[in-house]
Amino acid sequence: MTEERPGDESPRLQEFQTQVEDLRLSGGRANPERAAVRLALVLFVVAVVIEIVAFNGSSSASDSRDQTDFVILALLGVVVALGAVGLFIRASLTRYFRYWLVRLVYEDRANTDRLIDALRPGREK
Amino acid sequence: MTTAAPLLELRGVRAGYGIIDVLHGVDLVLQPGEVLALLGPNGAGKSTTLAVASGQIEPSSGQLLIGGREVNGARPDALARSGVCLVPEGRGIFPNLTVTENLRMMTFAGTSLSAIQEKAYELFPRLEERRRQLAGTLSGGEQQMLAMARAMATDPALLMLDELSMGLAPIIVDELYSQVATLARTGLSILIVEQFAKTVLGVADTAAIMLHGRVTRTGRPDEIAEELTAAYLGIESGGHQ
């Protein structure tokens, strides 16, 4: 078989080559949930910094129009914080449910194997 | 293949699970239309190599090349859709579903169920007799046939078989490997991982021995057969490639 390689010129292999060339690579994102959790934590820190800046700014501003700007900045900080919390919950739940689903599949498979084993003819009770 | 590039190539691949490295620089080449047997004792890293090749585990360093293109970081489903197919250890069938329902699961790629069934039953006529039977109630050999039939339903360009013979009677293993040989004659590239070498060496064009996360020897099956005993006894071969 070593000498003959019927697959060398096959249309399927050429098609495969094209499909592989068209593949989109995620490169370094093998664990997207972990990256999302880290991003959420960074965003949360950013939100806290925004809130501190807004609080300090509004405290030192005497003009109500300047204070309004800082209130808007503070609201932006709240939005960033809510986004971070949402991202954190989503990524954490995804990890958990993935694990849960895999566990269910394995347990289900093990239960079926036990059931089939128990139903096998000739098995002593 | 339009170029002389190997269908699958691993260059210095290191990979593992979390902080534990299992592969310590694996180099492996599978040419188009070739059958490569990757042999080695339990824990050598054979299944992890397949997990890397199928995109399930991303290498921490080194290169995974398919058709000459580096595909580190490619999603496993994208690789599967393009034609990289893995039959995992333990067969990976759905025991609670019937044979037909298991085959129906392979329609994700857009192939109709009738076309999948036609191909599956042509390869393994016994499955047609069992088509309404729960997959979990099939014999071990029939389950492996179903797993292979499911894999072939996707029209793979690269088929990877992990421990095909595990838990099966020798006569069934021979039957399965005769089907593997038939598939190989069609030009399909096949990477087979096995602990028990005798049968797989009969259908392989090339064989490689893997020990402690490295491929320590690659060669013709007859050459490799002589070194296997030493490998299983834990004696490292001096003839590194």
Description:
Chain A is mainly α. Chain A has a domain at 33-93. Chain A has helices at 11-21, 32-60, 64-119. In chain A, α2 (32-60) packs antiparallel against α3. Chain A starts with 10 loop residues before the first helix and ends in a 6-residue tail after the last helix. Chain B is α/β, with parallel strands linked by helices. Chain B has a domain at 1-83 and 158-165 and 189-241: Rossmann fold (3-Layer(aba) Sandwich). Chain B is built from 9 helices and 10 strands. Chain B has helices spanning 46-53, 76-82, 99-104, 113-123, 125-129, 140-153, 170-185, 198-203, 221-232; strands at 8-17, 20-30, 35-39, 61-66, 69-70, 84-87, 158-162, 189-194, 206-211, 214-219. In chain B, strands 6-7-8-3-9-10 form a 6-stranded mixed beta sheet, sandwiched between helices. In chain B, strands 2-1-4-5 form a 4-stranded antiparallel beta sheet, with helices on one face. In chain B, a hairpin with a 2-residue loop joins β4 (61-66) and β5 (69-70). Chain B is globular. Residues 237-241 of chain B have low confidence and may be disordered.
Structure summarized in a few sentences:
The complex is a heterodimer of chains A (125) and B (241). Chain A has 125 residues and is mainly α. Chain A has three helices and no strands.
Descriptive labels:
heterodimer; A: 125 residues; mainly alpha; 3 helices; 77% helix; B: 241 residues; alpha/beta; Rossmann fold; 6-stranded mixed sheet; 4-stranded antiparallel sheet; 25% strand; globular
Main sheet: strands, sense, barrel of chain A: none
The CATH class of one domain in chain B turns out to be: Alpha Beta
Beta-strand percent range of chain A: under 5%
Q: Give me the Rg of chain B, rounded.
A: 17 Å
Instruction: Report low-confidence residues of chain A grouped into runs of 5 or more.
Output: none
Global shape of chain A: elongated
Count of individual helical segments of chain A:
3
The span between the termini of chain A is 52 Å
Distance between the termini of chain B: 26 Å
Tell me the number of helical segments of chain B per DSSP (H or I, 4 or more residues long): 9
- Tell me the quaternary state: heterodimer
Please tell me how large the radius of gyration of chain A is: 29 Å
Looking at the overall shape, the CATH architecture of one domain in chain B is 3-Layer(aba) Sandwich
Shape of chain B: globular
Low-pLDDT residue intervals, each spanning 5 or more residues of chain B: 237-241
The pair of chains with the biggest contact is:
A-B, 33 and 40 residues
CATH fold topology of one domain in chain B: Rossmann fold
Helix content of chain B: 25-40%
Question: Which series of helices and strands of chain B comes N to C?
Answer: EEEHEEHEHHHHEHEHEEH
Q: What average pLDDT do the residues of chain B reach?
A: 86
CATH superfamily of one domain in chain B: P-loop containing nucleotide triphosphate hydrolases
